[in-house]
TrEMBL record:
<keyword id="KW-0805">Transcription regulation</keyword>
<feature type="domain" description="RNA polymerase sigma-70 region 2">
    <location>
        <begin position="12"/>
        <end position="77"/>
    </location>
</feature>
<protein>
    <submittedName>
        <fullName>RNA polymerase subunit sigma24</fullName>
    </submittedName>
</protein>
<dbReference type="InterPro" id="IPR039425">
    <property type="entry name" value="RNA_pol_sigma-70-like"/>
</dbReference>
<dbReference type="GO" id="GO:0003677">
    <property type="term" value="F:DNA binding"/>
</dbReference>
<dbReference type="InterPro" id="IPR013325">
    <property type="entry name" value="RNA_pol_sigma_r2"/>
</dbReference>
<dbReference type="InterPro" id="IPR036388">
    <property type="entry name" value="WH-like_DNA-bd_sf"/>
</dbReference>
<feature type="domain" description="RNA polymerase sigma factor 70 region 4 type 2">
    <location>
        <begin position="114"/>
        <end position="158"/>
    </location>
</feature>
<dbReference type="InterPro" id="IPR013324">
    <property type="entry name" value="RNA_pol_sigma_r3/r4-like"/>
</dbReference>
<keyword id="KW-0731">Sigma factor</keyword>
<dbReference type="GO" id="GO:0016987">
    <property type="term" value="F:sigma factor activity"/>
</dbReference>
<comment type="similarity">
    <text>Belongs to the sigma-70 factor family. ECF subfamily.</text>
</comment>
<dbReference type="Pfam" id="PF08281">
    <property type="entry name" value="Sigma70_r4_2"/>
</dbReference>
<keyword id="KW-0804">Transcription</keyword>
<dbReference type="InterPro" id="IPR014284">
    <property type="entry name" value="RNA_pol_sigma-70_dom"/>
</dbReference>
<dbReference type="InterPro" id="IPR007627">
    <property type="entry name" value="RNA_pol_sigma70_r2"/>
</dbReference>
<dbReference type="Pfam" id="PF04542">
    <property type="entry name" value="Sigma70_r2"/>
</dbReference>
Length: 172
């Protein structure tokens, strides 16, 4: 039963919080990261449950925690792979050794100019959505909120922008 003046989603989260932290810790092995993941899970759950009925809300909340924990674990494995052969200085040296040759730099400079021109040809809303997603790393939900549009429309704008750039690059 919800607390007076508080939404049911918050009550659900509060009542399961310590179990969620324990669950996240069992996946990633770190109490601090588990706490952070559970907070992130709450933000996502709260956003998803606003004004909507979620049939198995507890299961959904646990699934969010699990997915975040697994993503975090995968990211940590990737990061460790970069520095596994030695220390940070060695990782920097290896990436510096892999610097592109002048022809590659010239090729990508030309492609960058084509993409910049293609983006300038797009309607402002499409250009913004595409730039936010591809260059800013924004999620479709964030783009939709920023542009005050639906998530499917944000997806369409991003896809249209990318298709236009591909056409200009001759990759369509």
């Amino acid at each position: 039963m919800p607390l007076p003046g508080k939404p049911a989603a918050l009550d659900l989260f509060v009542s399961h919080r310590s179990a969620l932290v324990t669950y996240a810790r069992s996946i990633i092995g770190s109490s601090g990261q588990a706490e952070d993941l559970v907070q992130e899970a709450w933000l996502r759950f709260d956003e998803a449950s606003r004004g909507r009925f979620i049939e198995d809300a507890t299961g959904y909340l646990y699934r969010i925690v699990r997915n975040l924990a697994l993503d975090s674990k995968r990211r940590l494995v990737r990061e460790n792979r970069v520095t596994a052969a030695g220390d940070y200085d060695e990782a920097v040296r290896v990436s510096a050794d892999a610097a592109p040759n002048p022809e590659t730099v010239a090729l990508y400079k030309d492609q960058y100019a084509i993409v910049a021109a293609a983006l300038a040809e797009l309607p402002e809303r499409t250009r913004l959505a595409c730039e936010m997603h591809r260059f800013g790393g924004a999620k479709l939900r964030e783009i939709a909120e920023f542009l005050d549009i639906s998530v499917p429309l944000a997806h369409k704008l991003v896809a249209d922008g990318i298709d236009h750039c591909k056409q200009r690059l001759g990759q369509a």
